[in-house]
Design a protein that fits this description.
By secondary structure, the protein is mainly alpha-helical. The protein has a single domain (2-150), classed as Cytochrome c-like domain (Cytochrome Bc1 Complex, Chain D, domain 2, Orthogonal Bundle). It is 32% helix and 5% strand. The protein has five helices and two strands, in the order αββαααα. The chain has helices at 2-17, 51-58, 90-93, 96-104, 139-150, and strands at 19-22, 33-36. Helix 2 (51-58) packs across helix 5. The longest helix has 16 residues, at 2-17.
């Protein structure tokens, strides 16, 4: 495992500095996006993200919630995860473009992450039939979550 981590770590600066186009080969209605310097600079939609909708999405216990793995500054929710890093202040640590890539395809940033891709639909193993060939979030939901997370600044 250490050898794999070291080889991945050696490639991360190369990947982060790379610029390439990623196309959605599987999944009807997915938007193509371009990864540049460890980020997706262009929004996936023409409509700006809505932070109020984004806040609802990240805490929606009937869907996929960020609270399963992350603690967040959402005091009305009693249970927060501890698997991923805390998201308080995440808008100070990353740009909207960097947050967008982390939601679309976190393995592009860290190949060893256990965080799921919220917008990819291919190259997964053992996906339940009802979840195949469709992203977790729509393009607009990605933009709404990015808008919300971007507001979470350090004081």
């Amino acid at each position: 495992m250490t050898i794999i981590r070291k080889s991945i770590a050696a490639w991360l600066p190369v990947l982060a500095a790379s610029s390439f186009i990623v196309t959605a080969a599987v999944g009807e209605g997915l938007v193509n996006f371009k990864i540049e310097n460890g980020a997706v600079p262009q929004p996936l939609t023409g409509e700006p993200g809505n932070p109020a909708r984004g806040r609802q999405i990240v805490r929606d216990m009937n869907h996929v919630t960020c609270l399963i793995c992350h603690s967040m500054p959402i005091p009305e929710e009693p249970d927060h995860g501890e698997i991923g890093p805390p998201l308080a202040g995440v808008g100070s640590r990353f740009t909207a473009s960097e947050l967008r890539l982390r939601l679309i395809d976190p393995k592009a940033v860290n190949p060893a992450t256990i965080m799921p891709s919220y917008y990819r639909v291919s190259n997964f193993m053992r996906v339940g039939e009802s979840f195949r060939d469709r992203p977790i979030y729509t393009a607009q939901q990605i933009e709404d979550v990015v808008a919300y997370l971007s507001l979470l600044k350090d004081n």
